[in-house]
Specification:
heterotrimer; A mainly alpha (346); B mainly alpha (291); C alpha/beta (247); A: 346 residues; mainly alpha; 2 domains; two-stranded antiparallel sheet; 72% helix; C: 247 residues; alpha/beta; Rossmann fold; 11 helices; 10 strands
Chain lengths: 346, 291, 247
């Protein structure tokens, strides 16, 4: 009797198979687009002779990069682990002042000491985190608010760092007054790229998985063997690093530091809003959120004028997004299956 | 020696006021698990109402309590129905209430700033700077009246919670929300009323604030930080803790102010917060927390 | 007309998926039912849906002919449905006496409440001994007794009990079921969810087997216990064989 030999197909047929090469193609296309965007951004400063509003755009983009870095950093603790920090700008101030102190008293440029300032922030984050992240409840959030106000009081009184009158930094000599901003442009761009890449790596790592488990159900995560306290403290400290670095650079770019510029509610609120409006817990979310809010703030200030109205609108936006689109732009789009590949960075 | 008595008295007097400010905040957490970051914002609204009534029509801040209390009760009820009741079933409720109330605090600050500008205000009442002199000890009149009013308000609150059926329901809900539901408490209505009371007390406390301290739209942030630290020290959800913690920390703050200067008095509360988190995270009267 | 009719109900938590996918249950006045089934079958969810703690997304729940789905839990309680949850939901810092008094929140007459509390203490001597003890400090079995005593004060027409013997020692299990049987003897209807299939069905007239949020099999308790395919399906083959030897 002859046997019918049925051969299994070499490649599985059907929608799964069709999707695999398409997904790969999508990913490649996305990488290409992102690389192109990066290339364009790298070249913008070269437009000096051509662009009339050069300084303005350079400044705007620099600010955008800075906020991308900060919102993405906040997202590591606030988005991945679900622990809301409302005083995260402490790291911003500490970074700025640390580098300023090195510059003024030792003479080393903040461009070099920025990572060191970042590490100081990590130490701070570890120390504070070990105290405040012991419990699960709202005590942590409260402690972040207290921390920012402690910092404000301390910096206002610290004569060695200029107190409330602030501290002046020697100007950077880099050709004309427009070109002086260029190193900061590249510095912030580098930071933004590094933070986004870092947060991507973290999210994909075992550490990131643990953080997500904590966000989902901390008790179960603990029971599953995750050392939730150390994970949270690590996330807090890591997110502080980048903000410290960015703070160091920004402080230098201002050439003049005052506690008021860093340690206000509005700065903390913006960080939170950007991550949430973009999509908490996603990679692309804080980036989009940062760009949107920076653009929005720019428009709002020119239209509405006062900063009070700006604060009210920031608050209103936050409430609106939380009640209507809690997952943020990226999250909501993804849930409805409408997220463009370009933005799907997770 | 008289210095010690003086500082202690000052601490107690202010502590009573802090306790009234913090009681509504901790009660709302106890009943519904809501951390209302806008609580101090509501307090500042009360302060502005009281200040306007005083500067335009000469209405004494204590009389204005009759306006600020009920007005903010109503605002509280509306706020709860609009912002918090809809998200009660949300699994991330606790977190969301923090963020939503944070947004609300910003909105309040922005609106107050747009409406009233950033000028520092303080109701200039006659007893604001007057003191009774008892030998070496000076007792500020304004503080005494404020303390008395605080005691009255706390007393009324206590009476409401322990002598009325609704108060009974509120206390039961604070102990165990699902148990209260099972025995027939309408927890939705209880929560709404509790939140209204919480904000109402903030409004009334705002009247006291208006002449005891200088205020401006952005002041709410340092107040909320202070009050939150206070209720963590006292124990989240514990009104007794708010009273003891308020008076205790106010006494310490009085000493700190005397030794280091007034700008450090707030630090007392924040440092106390961190110490409590280190040593006894559940606060003075809080239930032992699952770590 | 049945006392309780659960009519093709779909329900779930928050915005999550449907846990109940069309459950139909019926209990006549004075009769009892026991719901059994594997984990995740939706047994507790069914009780919570009746009690108003979980939103009914489609279908109806009728008590005494009137629709109760969509009503608040306290409104459903007032109609005579009392729910005893798995965690007992006592007031931890209140004493036994205070817990019982709190049960009378919906009872307007103070005299009547006092009478019922005294009656409950008589019925549950264990609690009478401990009347000034805080609920938090009592053992699991004592807490369960308190939860049942609390329900007794409310004199419901329908009692919903979720896993009453969870975590209790075998002897205490017997005591709990004895109490539930006494309730039944007074004419109270009981719907209970029990993982201890034998005991649970032993305390009910009718058994419902749920799986994946749907009705699997239902019938008189004895027939459920005796049915081998039901045993296999829901108790696991090796356990089923073991149970066969016992019964």
């Amino acid at each position: 009797m002859s046997e019918k030999v049925t051969e299994a197909p070499a490649v599985p047929a059907g929608p799964v198979a069709a999707a695999a090469p398409a997904a790969r193609e999508g990913r490649d296309r996305r990488k290409l687009v992102l690389a192109l965007v990066l290339l364009v951004l790298l070249c913008v400063p070269l437009l000096y002779p051509v662009l009339v509003t050069y300084s303005y755009w350079l400044q705007m983009l620099t600010i955008a990069f800075m906020w991308i870095a900060m919102a993405s950093s906040w997202n590591i603790l606030g988005g991945f682990a679900g622990y809301i920090s409302l005083g995260h700008n402490v790291f911003y101030a500490v970074g700025a002042y640390a580098s300023a102190a090195f510059f003024v008293h030792v003479g080393i440029s903040p461009f070099i000491t920025a990572p060191l300032s970042g590490l100081i922030c990590v130490a701070l984050g570890l120390g504070i985190g070990l105290i405040t992240l012991r419990t699960r409840g709202p005590a942590f959030i409260i402690s972040t608010i207290a921390l920012m106000l402690i910092a404000r009081i301390l910096f206002d009184r610290w004569g060695w760092l200029g107190g409330s009158n602030g501290i002046s930094l020697p100007m950077l000599d880099f050709g004309s007054s427009s070109l002086v901003k260029v190193p900061f442009y590249y510095g912030m761009l580098l930071c933004a790229v590094l933070v986004v890449v870092a947060s991507y790596r973290i999210k994909k790592s075992k550490f990131g998985l643990g953080l997500r488990a904590i966000a989902e159900d901390e008790v179960k995560a603990e029971v599953a063997g995750i050392n939730t306290r150390m994970y949270k403290v690590a996330a807090f400290a890591i997110s502080g690093f980048f903000i410290g670095v960015v703070g160091a650079l920004w402080g230098y770019s201002l050439f003049y530091l005052r506690p008021e510029a860093f340690l206000t509610l509005a700065v903390a609120a913006d960080m939170v809003l950007m991550a949430i409006i973009g999509g908490r817990g996603t990679i692309a979310g804080p980036v989009i959120g940062a760009v949107l809010i920076v653009a929005f703030n720019e428009v709002a200030v020119s239209q509405l004028g006062s900063s009070e109205a700006n604060i009210a609108v920031t608050g209103g936006l936050l409430i609106l997004v939380l009640m209507a689109f809690p997952l943020g732009i990226v999250g909501t789009l993804r849930e409805r299956g409408r997220l463009p590949r370009i933005l799907d960075w997770d | 020696m008289s210095q010690i008595v003086q500082l202690t008295i000052l601490g107690i007097l202010l502590g009573g006021v802090y306790a009234v400010m913090a009681t509504g905040l901790t009660m709302v957490y106890g009943v519904m698990g809501i951390i209302n970051l806008a609580h101090a914002g509501f307090m500042v609204i009360g302060a502005y109402i009281s200040f306007e009534m005083f500067s335009r029509w000469g209405v004494d801040p204590f009389v204005s309590i009759l306006v600020t209390g009920p007005a903010l009760f109503v605002i509280g009820v509306v706020t709860y129905r609009l912002l918090f009741a809809p998200i009660t079933e949300n699994p991330r409720f606790g977190e969301m209430t923090v963020l939503v109330s944070f947004g609300l605090a910003l909105v309040i600050e922005g609106l107050l700033g747009a409406g009233f500008t950033n000028i520092y205000h303080r109701s200039d009442v006659s007893y604001g700077t007057a003191t009774w002199d008892l030998g070496a000890i000076f007792i500020p009149q304004g503080q005494v009246y404020g303390f008395a009013a605080s005691l009255v308000m706390l007393g009324l609150l206590w009476a409401f919670l322990y002598l009325t059926k609704t108060g009974y329901a509120i206390r039961a809900t604070m102990q165990n929300r699902s148990a209260a539901q099972i025995v027939g408490v309408n927890v939705d209505r209880v929560s709404t009323i509790a939140f209204g009371i919480g904000v109402g007390t903030a409004g009334a406390a705002g009247s006291l604030l208006s002449y005891l301290f200088t205020f401006f739209p952005g002041a709410h942030w340092q107040w909320i930080a202070l009050l939150l630290s206070l209720i963590v020290v006292g124990g989240l959800g514990s009104m007794g803790g708010a009273l003891v913690g308020g008076i205790g920390l106010a006494i310490v703050a009085a000493y700190v102010t005397d030794i280091f200067g007034p700008t450090w008095s707030q630090m007392t509360f924040y440092v106390a917060l961190f110490i409590v988190l280190l040593v006894r995270p559940q606060g003075l009267f809080g239930k032992p927390l699952p770590a | 007309m049945a006392l309780l009719e659960i009519d093709d109900v779909r329900a779930g938590y928050g915005s999550g998926p449907d846990i109940l996918n069309g459950v139909t249950i019926r209990i006549d006045e004075g009769r009892s039912a026991c719901i059994v089934g594997p984990n995740g079958a939706g047994k507790s969810t069914t009780l919570k849906a009746v009690a108003g703690l979980v939103k009914v997304r489609s279908g109806e729940i009728r008590f005494d002919g009137d629709r109760i789905d969509g009503l608040r839990p306290d409104e459903i309680l007032r109609r005579g449905v009392c729910f005893v949850p798995q965690d007992r939901s006592l007031f931890p810092d209140m004493t036994v006496r205070e817990n019982l008094a709190m049960a009378g929140y919906s009872i307007s007459s103070k005299g009547e409440l006092q009478r019922r509390i005294d009656e409950a203490l008589e019925m549950f001597p264990i609690l009478a001994e401990r009347r000034t003890q805080r609920a938090r400090t009592m053992s699991g079995g004592q807490q369960q007794m308190l939860a049942l005593a609390r329900a007794w004060i409310l004199r419901p027409r329908l009692l919903l009990v979720d896993e009453p013997t969870m975590g209790l020692a075998p002897q205490v299990v017997q005591e709990v079921f004895a109490v539930i049987q006494r309730f039944r003897d007074t004419g109270m209807s009981v719907m209970l969810v029990e993982h201890n299939v034998k005991e649970g069905l032993g305390c009910a007239d009718w058994g419902y087997v749920l799986d994946l949020g749907r009705n699997g099999f239902d019938g008189p308790s004895e027939s459920i216990l005796a049915n081998p395919s039901v045993r296999e399906l829901y108790l696991g083959k090796s356990v089923a064989r073991h149970t066969e030897k016992i019964l």
